[in-house]
Batch of 2 targets.
Target 1
Amino acid sequence: MEQIKTKSIVLGITGGIAAYKAAELARMLIKQDIVVQVAMTDAACHFITPLTLQALTGKPVLTSSWGESGNGMDHINLSRSANMIVIAPATADFIAKLAHGLADDLLSNMCLARNCSLLIAPAMNRQMWESAATQRNIKQLMADGVIVLGPDSGVQACGEEGLGRMLEPAQLAQAVVAQFQPKLLTGTRVMLTAGPTYEAIDAVRGITNRSSGKMGYAIAQAALELGAQVTLVSGPTVLLAPHGVELVQVNSAQEMFEAVKTHVAGTDIFIGVAAVADYRAAETSTQKIKKSTSNLTLVLVPNPDILAYVAALPKPPFCVGFAAETENLKTYATQKRTAKKLPLLAANLAQQAIGADDNELILFDDAGEHLLPRADKLTQARALMNHIIKLKGIT
């Protein structure tokens, strides 16, 4: 799988309050080994200083068509050397310029002269976003092949609430990184379960576990990067879902089971990452059970085995299981893979993985064991997806 070796982008910053988030975006992209060259409009310089971006990127920030080269050709040269241009934030004014082919500053000239892809992250007041003019401009840009990331909904700097917020830097960084990945899973539907489940005992108490959901969300991101259509069925977490996934939020194992049954039709790859509670209370109280001096006995009944259900379908998708054990990892993982007839199972020690940002995985398939040395969970997720692609014979 050939990947772009030298990753380089132009990060364009326009004059909106969300310009301060561009500094964090630049930092995140550099951590992914992407070379970042910043170009700013004059208005953007009123919100964040070029010196800040220069310190983060290690490169002089371009703000004028008469740049460092001295020949006035930065708008040509930069778009030829970059893999893509990312405008974050993209104001309503700058979006209008792009839609109508206006070029009265360095950044708009660069976008018009580019021979690389263009991504924009809109950021503006909700009424500006909803206006007929902005919506016409956005439709025109999408028709022209521009990739529009967002906007998101939420509280805005003006105090109003609604669509118009720029996506968070982490979401934008994920979207940019995804552009560099080979789209080997285009047209492929991937479904994942992630996070813990919560099994109610009464109105305020329940049975759960310490799963953070980080691994499942990382795999969802890795699948998106490869061009897959991703459905993420998630138990309760504090994580931000990758931009572009279909997120189905659930609480209990039974809710997760019903969500999977509802959405599994047409799925090509199913990955059961969720730490589903094995048992739930046979009876629950709608009110808080009051404390007393007597013992409290809970009768627990088994929850449905979601992965086993999917693997046993008449025409099952390619099923990948996860096993988190505290001992005898290889023995228990092999037994689980055999019992559920899975082509692939990923296993790890729970005490080393739960809640952590990194992980070590062992993959079990028909060929044997494959160690994925300890690394951050997104790196592990990408390695896992590449292994799935290899097993499925996708090239």
Target 2
Amino acid sequence: MGTLVLEELNAGNVVAANSLTLKPGQEQFVAPVSHSISEAYVNPTTAWPRVVLEDGEVVGFIMGNFDPDASHDEFRSCIWRINVAADAQGHGVGRFAVQSLAEEARARGFDRLTVMWEPGENGPEQFFLRLGFTPVSETQYGEVVGALAL
């Protein structure tokens, strides 16, 4: 495991972020990074897109949303996307990304961070539970809403 650094999504790293490859079976649980990039462009004031570099190489992507006025509480301070390259999984990249986003949420005055995931084999549920997220509700589409107290 190398040195992890968080960097704002920019013209110099966007291609690498968009090229991240997940483990087989994980693709069904996460939208492509290109979707997140589009959403960040549409919502530039609330979206927080970042890449994780391990020893200078892009190995992860996370996008949060910070909107204290969101009509739904689960969208006020949340993880919209997280992708970790297949060969970097198990290196602490995902944990580092989530902890970094949680620190940003705290700095902005939020007291909880939420995330939604679809249950299923190869899904992210166990990852989020290990990080301390607790299921608090379910969406109308069957996704779990998890919350982490900050």
